[in-house]
Amino acid sequence: MALISFSLFGSTFAFGKSKNQVSTWSCYYGQQDKTEELARFDLVVLAVGGQNPVPLRKAGVKCLVYLSLGEVHADSPYYAEAAKSGLLVRYNENWNSWVVDIRRPEWKKMLFEQILPDALKAGYDGLFFDTLDSPIDMQRRDPDTYKGTERSSVELIKEIRKHYPKLLLCQNRGFEIIQRSGPYVDYFLIEGLSSSIDIGTQVRSDVTEKDRDFLISKARAALKNNRKLVVLSLDYVPFDDVKNIDKAYDFSRKQGFVPYVSTPELNQVNTYAPAP
C-alpha cells in the first residue's frame, strides 16, 4: 500500500492511502447534465434526482448524494408524513423548509425506510449530511425543550454508519458534534472558510479571522479523533472574481484542506482551480 504524507496544522502525518482520499471536489445541485465538467473532479456531491451519477462513477469519480438530516423542504414528498407525525418544529424561511425533531423515532423510521433508500437508488458511493445545524440550534435556543438533540444527532450518524458500513459519509458543519461524530464519517465540510455571499443581497464578504480560527480549531479537534478524516472547504465567490477565488483556494490548501469555490445556489460547476 502506497504511503502518503502531508503537513497539517504544523504536524506531518504519514499513513496508508485510504478510500476517501481526494485532491479535488465539487458540489452541484443543478438539473442539467454536467458529466464532462464533473468528471474532472475526484469527488462530487449531487442532488437527489439531479445529475446522473452512473457515468461519473464509471469515470472513477466518487459520488455522494445530498441528504437533509435536520430539515424537510416544504415541497418534499416526505413533508406531509413529517407534518402528520408532529416532527416539524420551526420554519426556515431562507429555504422554505422545516426543522425536524431529530430525536423522534418517527424521524428515524422515515429516514431508514424511505428517505435513505430513495436517495441511494440511483447508485452512489456515499451520503452527504446537511442541515444538522438546524436541530442542534433548537437545543441551543431552548435547552430544556430540546435536550438531547446533539446526542441524538451523533447516534443517528452512528446508526447510518452501522447500516451502511461501505458507504462514504460526509458531514457538513455541525461543529458542536464533530468531535463525537468524526470517527464515523470520511469527510467533514466547512462552508465559508474564507469567503461568503449574503443570500439576500448577493454581496460577497471575507470571513473574519476570528471565525476562521474557530473553523480551523474544529477541524483540528475532529482530526484528533480520526486521522483519516478529509476536511473539505466550500467558499462562495462570484465566478468572475478570480482574485478572491485564488485566495480561497490558497488559504484552504495551506490548512491541508481540499477546497472548492462556487455560488450559494450550487447550480453551476466551477472548473476553474488555481494550481497548488
Automatic annotation (TrEMBL):
Q: What species is given as this protein's source?
A: Maridesulfovibrio ferrireducens
**Glycoside-hydrolase family GH114 TIM-barrel domain residues:** 55-267
Instruction: List residues traversing the bilayer.
Output: none
Q: PANTHER family annotated for this entry? A: PELA
**Pfam families reported in the protein's UniProt record:** Glyco_hydro_114
Cross-referenced SUPFAM superfamilies, in alphabetical order? (Trans)glycosidases
Q: What is this protein called?
A: Extracellular protein
Query: So which domain of life are we looking at?
Result: Bacteria
